[in-house]
Amino acid sequence: MATAPRLHGPTSSLSTSWCHCWGCSAPCCSSGSPVTAPGCCRALSGAWPSSRPSCGTGLGGGGPKTGGGPETGGAPLPTIYVVTPTYARPVQKAELVRLSQTLLHVRALHWVVVEDAPAPTALVGGLLAASGVPFTHLHAPTPPEIRRRPGDPPWLRPRGVEQRNRALQWLRDMRPPGEAAVVYFADDDNTYSLRLFEEMRSTRGVSVWPVGLVGGLRFERPLVAGGRVVGFHTAWKPERPFPLDMAGFAVALPLLRARPAARFDPAAERGYLESSLLGGLVTPAQLEPKADNCTQVLVWHTRTEKPKLRQEEQLQRQGRGSDPRIEV
């Protein structure tokens, strides 16, 4: 049975006030009001941004960051829930650190990290606590029958299905009804432009955009005419109902609540995992094009090279391996 999720929010025992102006975590807030301090928001441009920073209690911001400003008429920004499945491997911490330091710069964002593990690990928990990003830490082990075996090619079995579905359950069960929010599935190895998050924030149903370096192409993208999606530029299995990469869409949380049966199908045919969710939410004609009518690439399907640790393995066999107490 899954243990209770770790929610970094108002119940935090930490009491230091921190500024969260585009992710800055310098101690520059006093009684909930921003004040100038070396190394904080002023260092970015020499002056406070047009949107005032919001302050929260604790190192991670006391829950989802919210902020208003001229672009929202003073109303709170819709929260972006970034869902990241992750699993243990040599580059796991490096991937999560890189992603966290992108998310630090996004206002009104909450990071939902779901481990493929029977219990939360200290490595991921410690990283999240130190990240400065409001987060929820979940876990959901992949069943043995669909888990990749050693030597399996990466395309043989989908990864992250149970973890994304666990996040969907948490979002539907634990977030306030009627909350204006957007859900985005961000793998830990991709590269994200900050502009992407502001593009998706206005999502009403399902929004879409191009993804670079995917599907054997320079990019895949929805084709747009008259402000509507009319097709897809893709080369691999173009007959798919939604030939989109996981990084190429976001979903409004109210729509996910209104369609409680919509989920990722662990038995989906190769390449159809995204379609298994989206088909329960919208039709292709209802997709909302973003990124200048899907002409701007703001996310890239990059992958970190698997490190070769032959010397490490050799030293371990000799009892002289690297100190296991040092986290990498």
Automatic annotation (TrEMBL):
GO terms for molecular function: galactosylgalactosylxylosylprotein 3-beta-glucuronosyltransferase activity; metal ion binding. Gene3D superfamilies: Spore Coat Polysaccharide Biosynthesis Protein SpsA, Chain A. UDP-alpha-D-glucuronate binds at residues 85-87, 116, 159, 164, 187-189, 301-303. It is a single-pass type II membrane protein. Residues 57-72 have a biased composition (Gly residues). It is found in: Golgi apparatus membrane; Membrane. This is Galactosylgalactosylxylosylprotein 3-beta-glucuronosyltransferase. It catalyses: 3-O-(beta-D-galactosyl-(1->3)-beta-D-galactosyl-(1->4)-beta-D-xylosyl)-L-seryl-[protein] + UDP-alpha-D-glucuronate = 3-O-(beta-D-GlcA-(1->3)-beta-D-Gal-(1->3)-beta-D-Gal-(1->4)-beta-D-Xyl)-L-seryl-[protein] + UDP + H(+). CDD domains: GlcAT-I (cd00218). Belongs to the glycosyltransferase 43 family.
